Structure formats: C-alpha cells, structure tokens
Fold this sequence. Notes:
This protein is α/β, with parallel strands linked by helices.
Amino acid sequence: MAGGEKEITSVLKERRLFKPNKEFSQQAHIKSLREYERLCKKAEKDPETFWGTLAKELHWFKPWKKVLQWKPPFAKWFVGGKINVAYNCLDRHLEGWRKNKAAIIWEGEPGDTRTLTYQDLHREVCKFANVLKQEGVVKGDRVAIYMPMIPELAIAMLACARIGATHSIIFGGFSSAALRDRINDAEAKLVVTADGGYRKGSVITLKEKVDEALKGSPSVEKMVVVRRTNTPVKMRRGRDFWWHDLMKDASDHCKAVPLDSEHPLFILYTSGTTGKPKGVVHTTGGYLLGTTVTARWIFDLKDTDTYWCTADIGWVTGHSYIIYGILSNGVTSVMYEGVPTYPQPDRLWQIVDKYKVNVFYTAPTAIRALVKLGKAWPERHDLSSLRLLGTVGEPINPEAWMWYHTIIGKKKCPIVDTWWQTETGSIMISPLPGAIPTKPGSATRPFPGISVDVVDRKGAGVKPNIGGYLIIKRPWPSMLRTIWRDPKRFKNQYWSDIPGVYFTGDGARRDRDGYFWVMGRVDDVINVAGHRLGTMEVESALVSHPAVAEAAVVGRPDPIKGTGIAAFVTLEGKNKPAEKLKKALKAHVTKEIGAIARPDDIRFTENLPKTRSGKIMRRLLRDIASGNETVGDTSTLEDYTVLATLRQEDE
Ligand code: WTA
C-alpha cells in the first residue's frame, strides 16, 4: 500500500466534524441525516424498487421487464428496456426552456472560448453521428477517441452514444505505443483526433501520434481530424479526413437509436496488476442512472448551477461527471482545455470567477500543488459564487482539505470527498452535502443503495477502526459489466480474492460513526497525481529497454502527487549504471506509456530482493524507496545481502 501507513496514522488523529449549515441543507436535494438514512434503509430492503423508481425519471423508448438479472458476477440492469444516453443528455432538454441554456461552456488554454447551448450541442452531435455513419460506423463498432479537451471531444462521444457505437477514449497524454495497444484490444474501426492540443503553452501533437500508432493497428479504416492548433499534419488519402470538411455537408437530423439497456456505451482502459491494461466495459441504462442520480444528490445540482469538473475526459471522472451525469441533469458544464497553472497559478480561480462557477470538482493532487503556490493566487479572485466543492481520485490529506475549506470555500461550502473507481462508473462513497457531516480525510458514508463494507481476507467484517479490504456486497446499476473480451479476467480480478463480493483493490477502515477512511491500494496499482498506474506496466516498459534485465517499481510518498514512482533496476550484461542511462530509461517509459508513468527515481542495483519462490519483495522496496526502516519478516529473503546493499546505496 503505497504510503498507506503514514496516511492511516495521520487520519486517525482527525477528530474535526463539519456539519452542513442550515441554509445549505434546506435547499439541498437530500436535506437531513434522517432523510439519508431513510433512503438507505429503503434501498437496503428492496434495492430493485429503489433503483427502478429512480430509473423512471430517465427517458426510455421501451420500459424494462426486470430491474436486475444477477448471475454472479454478471449483472444485467433494466432487462428488456430500450434507452439512448445521448437522447437523455440532449433531446430531453430541447422540449422545454432549457433548449437555449448553455450545455457546455468551454475555455481553451490560450483563452479562446466557446459556448454550446443544448440545442447547439444537439445539432453538432446529430451532424457528427451522420458523419460516423457515412464513414461506415455501425451500431456495435468501436470508435477510438484521442483528443484534447475541446468541445469536439464531447460531440464525438455523444455522437457514438447516439448511434450505438462504443467509444474508447484514450487520454491525450498516452504515448503512441499505449494508444496502439488500446486501439488493437478494442479493434477500433475509426479514430477521432486533432492536429494538436494546447498544454502548458505548447502544442501536443496528437495526429502524429495516431499516425505512428496506426502502423500497428490494422483494424482502423478511417481517421477524422479536428483542426485545433494549425499544426502541419500529413493527411493520408482515403484514410484521413478533416472534421470540418465532413461536417460541412452533414445533415443535422439523426434519430437517437433505441438501444438495449445493456448495450456497451464505452470501454475505458485502466491499470490493473498485470502489464496489460484492462478494458473496463460500461453499458447504457444502469450507467446513465448511476451517474445521473449521484451527480444530482452529491453535487446537489440545480438548474441554476454552473458546474465545473477539472478532470480530463480521458479518465472516468470526465466521462461521468463532465459529460454524462451532468448533461443528463440539464446542468451547465464548464470544460477547460489546459493545465491549472497556465499562464499563471491562478488559472482555475480566474475561470471560477469569470463564469461564476457554483460547484467545483477537482483532485487532491491539484489542491496540494496550489496550496504550495500560496493563497495569494486564489485571493486575487472573487470566489463567492462557489457553494459546493468536491474532490476525487485519491485520499485527501486533512491539511489540503482544510485549505480547500478555508481558502477556496471561505468556510461556507460543504466538501464532498467522493470515493469511486473506473470500474464502479459512478460515486460509491461520499457525503450528501446537505445531510452528512464531514470529517477531513474521510469520504464519509456510502450512497443509498450501495452496500460497502470493510472485511478481512475471508470476507468477515472487521471491527471499527481496524484496517481491512474495501468491498461492495451487492450489484449496483453503474458497475462494470466485464473486461472487454475477457470475462475470465473480470472474474479473477474482482470477484475471486474475497468470496462472493466485489473487491475494490483498496484498503480502508470504518470508524465508530460508520465513516469510511480509504487508505489506498493494497494491490500493485499506484495512484500518481490521481492517475492509476499498474507497477507492472511501468516494469514491462523498463524491461523492454535493451539495457535492463529486471525492474521493480513501487510507489513512494510524494508531497504533491500523493505517490511518486520509484524504480529499482538491474542491468543487462556490460551496461554500467550512469546518470545518462537513468535519463534514457525515463525517456523510454515516457515513450512506451506516457509522461504520467515516468519514474521519479531510478535506482540501479545488482539484485532485487526476492522470496524463495522468486517473488519480488515489494514491501521492502517500498520501505527503502520511502526511506522507512524496514520492519517485518524477512526470513524468506533469498539473499540477505541484497537488502543491505540497497540500503547502503540509499545512504
Ligand atoms: C482511489 C477515479 C481515496 C482509490 C474515480 C480507487 C480514492 C482509485 C478516492 C480509482 C477518494 C478514488 N479517496 N481514494 N475519494 N477516489 N480513489 O479508476 O484507490 O482512476 O481505487 O477512478 O482511486 O481510480 P480510478
């Protein structure tokens, strides 16, 4: 558990309790602890009626016959129902006054802006859906999307949803090798990209990376390219087309296709404990219900709200809480292309002030970075429009929480610390801001209808304040359905470690008030700046370098990123440890996966500590990497001297 122990001791001391203020509670969707507990009881007693009643608020072309069909670990929600996500996010709002309400307020990194009303967005989505059809995409095909944070990204995903094409969005920071692997696993037929995107004032060249990836991706027939940065690109005849050329003549009429509730809406690749990323599959009806209801109750969304989530749509947070869950509620979603500190460290606060953002959702890593830059930056701006703040992606340390609360929220905004995963599709544990008092560092209590627990290896519940494994006991509507074309892996990965339940991979404890304190991953997944990475992925990238014989990668505490990446590397044959080689290896990982996976430290060693059965003793490496004294049983160490040597090298 990367950095876990430290976190546990620090949060254990946390005793502060922040009650929602009366004014907030009175206007909130869920107004009191009593109301929350009543909902939980109702959901516990009869989950199908609970979810079924909520699902009726969505638009269905055809009602379902059965709320849940559960053949563990495979669930089907709203069996027989026909629904379309794009219809729910767009068409529904055109019937009334919302038609000319801003759906997306977009701000580019250089400061250019665009606002799309629900009607505008609907028109663009219909047009692009027609473009996709014209280019041969049919229901069930996969479309890969590799784009900067520009409105066309939202348009492309909703267009896929409209015609039943399954999108696979790949974060624009991934390398061409990572992109190729993901395209190939999903067998995508078409790629949507851009000539480039802006990041920290420079251009990231996306089309070029796609060109490189497509050399090894035979399934792709067509590519659509948005012009964003005017970066010169090579267009291959018959394969590559400009977005604006295709859109020029496209009709803006395109009926939303009634899709089976279990039709795959998207695949999103995420890191697991092996070198190969997993294609997490989310389907239509249940996912939309989960994201819609959680967004409404947790962000307390109102029609008057301007909501902003700073995540990238390339991660699940952007899928669920920039686009689907927000637009289905008919709310205005702000979308920003660039980094929080460009051109200056007050960019986020400048945007909050400019658009009078009411609800703001970001990651602890961003908060920590901004804390370090000082409170003078937020103090330059009027943040009085803010009424609710949220965090996601990793445990938030109480210090960062308090800064967020006082400096940004001016002590009047509730903070929702939301725990969830790519796999869960929507938020599972979080305060309902008008109902649940918060404690800095705790995601507090489960969403009604979500049955979470902390257990030991055998699945038995543990006592309050004892650490254990965080599990989910019952199926929920927005759960992942499988791993793309690998149901066996789905079963092994999530449903085998602890009998009969979904294992999250996280460690947690629950306090006497029933509050959950998530401690971090207990498997070989690390959370770097809120981005999930498998240590195995980084290891395979390192080992693919000709100079490397073996590598072990672990997390170590980092004051800003939460967790940093430390790599222990043994070299092949005659290669000598040298600074130059360290640099080359870091560059190699960047090329193989992307800059997010670049190791912070590389340490060369002659051997890695292993058990007799050949397993690398990561616990020891973690201790060394984080400078802790090694404790625990080392009697299974194959070679005691290795540990001593690694320690010495450290000094
Ligand atoms: C971690 C991001 C503590 C956790 C939505 C989880 C958190 C992993 C929190 C999923 C939180 C996410 N407190 N830890 N509020 N939110 N995590 O798939 O370890 O990118 O398993 O989804 O992030 O990361 P993923």
